[in-house]
TrEMBL record:
Gene3D superfamilies in alphabetical order: 3.10.450.50
Domain SnoaL-like: 10-132
Protein name: SnoaL-like domain-containing protein
Superkingdom in the source lineage: Bacteria
InterPro entries: NTF2-like_dom_sf, SnoaL-like
Native source organism of the sequence: Sphingomonas sanxanigenens DSM 19645 = NX02
Taxonomic path: Bacteria, Pseudomonadati, Pseudomonadota, Alphaproteobacteria, Sphingomonadales
């Protein structure tokens, strides 16, 4: 029995969109603005609460300032619902994101559970974001921070960092860090 070409294309498209979603998480967490820019179409919209509502490229231009006080960003996607329609698609993506932020009184943690409302388009054979909006369903704030990377349990482990100082840049050769 030969595979159904339409079903095969559906799987290929869904996997490309899942890869787009997870690459976004990596770009955000590593503060990789070049990679982030490559994930959106030039005319895409991004709605990120008070941080940005408008052109995605304007949001990405602001990211160095937005992320400057963020010592840790850790995005995790869970449930991914995708609807395909030719070269267009929509997705509702559940996420849990930890932010450890430098504050005036010391670091604090913001753990957010929410969803991304996404619209994707395939142009020139490549799926990218056409519109992304963040939806917050819950948040847990810890001030002061409860993150403890000095705990003896972690001794000897790699410790993640924003940017190219993250150990993944030296460890991986195939994942395209910094690309």
């Amino acid at each position: 029995m030969s595979p159904d070409p339409a079903a095969l294309q559906d799987l290929i498209d869904r996997e490309a969109i899942r890869q787009l979603i997870t690459t976004y998480c990596n770009a955000a967490d590593r503060h990789d603005h070049v990679k982030m820019r490559s994930l959106y179409h030039e005319d895409a919209i991004d709605e990120h609460g008070h941080m940005s509502k408008g052109p995605a490229m304007d949001f990405i231009d602001k990211l160095p300032e937005i992320q400057a006080p963020m010592e840790i960003l850790h995005h995790n996607v869970t449930t991914i619902n995708i609807a395909l329609d030719g070269d267009r698609a929509e997705g509702e993506v559940y996420l849990i994101a930890l932010h450890r932020v430098k504050g005036a009184d010391g670091p604090f943690d913001v753990l957010v559970g929410g969803r991304y409302f996404d619209k994707y388009e395939r142009r020139d054979g490549r799926w990218k974001f056409a519109h992304r909006a963040i939806v917050a369903d819950w948040a847990n704030i810890h001030s002061p921070s409860i993150v403890d990377l000095e705990h003896p349990f972690l001794h000897g482990a790699y410790i993640g960092k924003p940017g190219p100082e993250d150990p993944s840049y030296a460890f991986f050769g195939l994942l395209g860090r910094g690309a």
